Amino acid sequence: MRGEDHPDTLTSLNNLGVLLQAQGKLDEAEPYLREAMEKCRRVLGPDHPNTRISTINTATLLEAQGKHAEAVRLLVPIEDPARKAFTGSNARWLAKLLTTLGKARAALGELPAAEASLLEAHPLYVTTRGATHKDTRDCTRAIVELYNAWSAREPGEGYDAKAAGWKAKLDAIQPPGAEPKPAEKK
């Protein structure tokens, strides 16, 4: 028996939370992700890659739940260390952090900061996941939503054209036979 603080147990807690989130069971996922994150911090330390991944997963859930400010509070302190830690094929974790941070900042009305995060995340996803991967599509969709919101806030500033350009990219990367996913309302 490995024990409740064993790294494999912490990974299992994290993975269970991610699975529940993928099934749309956000409230059920939250305690597993929070427990995994807190135990990773305590057992592995704040700089361990698993701690950062667990934090990113928890923030992604919080953003999906509409807890945007809390997601930002979790991600901002690990953004710079994640840039150094998640390179090469692991840059997908930095892309996930940046996408989550961008979506949360957009929801909070921090549009320039959201734009910077999302535009940095997109090529990382294209490189590490591919142009048509669901993560790349999610990031692209978030960019469209950002520019639509910005256009509504500042009409006539060209954000509608940026939204249309990114929407065309999104339409081009939909899987064969798939209907485009409508923009989510938060």
Give a brief description.
It contains eight helices and no strands. With 186 residues, it is mostly helical.
Name a few traits of the molecule.
single chain, 186 residues, mainly alpha, Serine Threonine Protein Phosphatase 5, Tetratricopeptide repeat, globular
3D structure, described in words:
This protein is an all-alpha fold and 186 residues long. The chain has two domains: 1-65, Serine Threonine Protein Phosphatase 5, Tetratricopeptide repeat; 87-186. The protein has helices spanning 7-22, 26-43, 49-64, 68-85, 91-107, 111-128, 134-153, 159-172. α3 (49-64) runs antiparallel to α4, α5 (91-107) packs antiparallel against α6 (111-128) and α7 runs antiparallel to α8. The protein is globular. The N and C termini lie far apart (43 Å). Mean pLDDT is 92; it is low at 181-186.
Largest sheet: none
Mean pLDDT: 92
Class from helix and strand fractions: mainly alpha
Order of helices and strands: HHHHHHHH
> Roughly how many Å is the radius of gyration?
17 Å
The number of domains: 2
What's the total helix number? 8
Percentage of residues in DSSP E strands: under 5%
Distance between the termini: 43 Å
Percent helix, as a range, is over 70%
Tally of strands: 0
User: What is the global morphology?
Assistant: globular
The quaternary organization reads as: single chain
Low-pLDDT ranges: 181-186
